[in-house]
Write a structure and sequence with these properties.
Layout: E1 12-14, E2 17-19, H1 21-55, H2 60-88, H3 97-115, H4 117-129, H5 138-171, H6 177-198, H7 207-228, H8 246-257, H9 261-291, H10 296-323, H11 326-347, H12 351-360, H13 362-379, H14 385-413, H15 421-441, H16 447-450
Antiparallel strand pairs: 1-2
């Protein structure tokens, strides 16, 4: 099915792709369907893994490593060459679709293998380890398998996440990109809401069935999207002797992305927020379940309510960004994150407090999410926006390696006092807010007035 329409006037397009109104609606429908399936699938892993590891009596240190540091390692060392490979790739299906098509079933398979880790680990232990290595325990074999499958998931999922974003950039016209991205956020939020309400309460009780069912659904849904969305034609890649090598690419990231003070402060602010959210996520979840004693059904409903609220707030926050300044919205979001974190440390002691914390945290999360993306679009040089965006991701993932390691150590040091994680978040959010304020203070960039000069 070609999304271009030859019997209707073109509204615009991207390179060789031209769309009618019907073609744009069709394109949006399939991409949003893919996003719904993707968010639903990724939420399984993010919410399931910390609880599953805890049930297997894995240390907090290992929970931090497997939940976050592995993501950072894979992105820092693998994303630059894979992104360059995709940019230069040419085929009859395009340069993004092949990466999505082949990585989708492999990502789904790794989630299924994680769900079956106790069973497969027990089999491997009994038939291949115990007869030859009597000192090795069955728990060691299971955890080793988990480490392998988690690394594999993060590698294939890294390809999926980025190739999907690159595909959106290649096929969605710029004149309607902002509206599309807002719908992207809403659909992703609704997908997360459906998962939290319908699947999350049963994710531990029926882990094998959930992993298999979601893996199959995701593969079919994403393959269907890949078959319906068409890429245009691309100019030929540069000669191989003009393409930068692996290490030279890293040098370009560091040299150009950090040259200006405004970019240095912005990169640091972004990485601190990413580190705070990602490294604390598993332990905040464990705080609600183990410290507060909330049931899985209660947690699923709270997460669903927060998702519904965020879907309603996206358009409001976007309007505020347009009417004021995105950097001020981002600063406000991060400051609220810090205040909510310190408040949670002192005042969240039961179900009601947890509900209030979860719902109140929704607004700063959206304010930060929209504010930082819009700010980046305005302060990064247009001709090198892709490079700066990739550099932002690499720096953020690099911080994840360190901060997930430290957060896990902190939880072990505190004797699994998961309440301490809120102090950790308060510190990182406060530092990030200071860095964002430095961005706002840079005198040769006036972000409020700059939007008037943009087309």
């Amino acid at each position: 099915m070609n999304l271009q329409s030859n019997d209707a006037p073109s509204l615009g397009g991207v390179e060789t792709l031209q769309y009618s109104k019907k073609g744009l609606i069709t394109l949006f429908s399939w991409l949003l369907w893919g996003d719904f399936a993707f968010v639903f699938f990724e939420t399984v892993f993010g919410k399931f893994l910390p609880l599953f590891l805890r049930e297997l009596h894995v240390s907090n240190f290992m929970i931090g490593i497997l939940s976050g540091s592995t993501v950072g390692l894979v992105n820092v060392f693998c994303l630059p060459p894979i992104s360059r490979w995709s940019d230069l790739f040419r085929s009859r299906w395009g340069r993004r679709i092949p990466f999505l098509f082949w990585s989708t079933p492999l990502t789904a398979l790794t989630v299924i293998l994680v769900g079956y880790a106790p069973e497969t680990g027990s089999w491997v232990y009994q038939h291949a380890v115990a007869p030859y290595f009597p000192k090795v325990t069955q728990e060691h074999v299971i955890v080793t398998q988990l480490v392998i499958w988690v690394f594999a998931f993060n590698f294939f999922n890294m390809i999926l996440v980025n190739a999907f974003n690159w595909l959106v950039c290649d096929v969605v016209p710029q004149f309607i990109m902002a509206r599309f991205l807002s719908w992207f956020r809403v659909v992703g939020t609704l997908s997360s809401c459906v998962f939290m309400w319908c699947v999350f309460p049963y994710i531990l009780t029926y882990r094998k069935e959930v992993c298999i069912g979601v893996g199959i659904f995701y593969t079919i849904a994403f393959w269907l999207m890949c078959s319906k969305v068409k890429e245009g034609s691309y100019p030929p890649p540069p000669p191989k002797n003009e393409q930068p090598g692996f290490f030279k690419s890293f040098g370009i990231y560091f040299q150009e992305c950090l040259r200006e003070p405004i970019h240095r402060y912005f990169f640091l602010a972004y990485t601190l927020v990413v580190a705070a959210i990602s490294s604390s996520g598993p332990f905040i979840l464990l705080f609600s379940k183990e410290t507060l004693g909330l049931e899985m059904s209660d947690l699923g409903k709270v997460f669903a309510y927060a998702a519904i609220l965020s879907a309603l707030l996206y358009f409001v926050v976007g309007w505020i960004c347009d009417k004021t300044s995105p950097i001020l919205v981002a600063i406000g979001g991060v400051v609220c994150f810090a205040l909510i974190s310190i408040g949670a440390y002192f005042f969240v002691h039961g179900k009601i407090g947890w509900i209030v914390y979860s719902l109140v945290s929704t607004f700063p999360g959206i304010a930060w999410g929209i504010g930082y993306v819009t700010t980046g679009m305005r302060i990064f040089p247009r001709e090198k926006y892709g490079q700066f965006s990739a550099g932002l991701n690499v720096f953020g993932c690099g911080f994840l390696i360190v901060f997930n390691f430290l957060s896990g150590k902190l939880m072990d040091w505190s004797g699994s006092d998961y309440r301490v994680i809120f102090l950790w978040c308060f510190s990182l959010f406060s530092l990030s807010a200071l860095c964002l304020w430095k961005v706002h203070q840079v005198k040769h960039i006036n972000l409020i007035d700059l939007k008037k000069s943009l087309p």
